[in-house]
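Blinded run. Sample ID left blank on purpose so nobody reads anything into the name before looking at the predicted structure. Input follows.
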Amino acid sequence: MLMCPYCGEEPPNPRLQLHQLLTSELKHGKRIHHGVVYCEECTRFWMIHDDILYMSTDDIRDKKKELEFLREWQEQLPEHITQQSKPYNLKIN
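Blinded prediction complete.
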């Protein structure tokens, strides 16, 4: 179970959304190669890049890499992620 590192586990638990961008079928499910996990409460996103979820705190995130990711996938991602998410988005960065 994933929980937002900023909103914590206190009720009500923040809802995390999974946006799958590039996947492949496996025998028992799906592999997510590229995607985003998004917290509706604090509006932060974490990228899934090359099968790895980068769920780090803001102070150690790679701004350049994450903005490149948002630019690459902006047509497939919802606007609230590309334009309004924290800590980075394409509107203010």
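Unblinding after everyone has recorded impressions. The first helix runs from residue 63 to 73.
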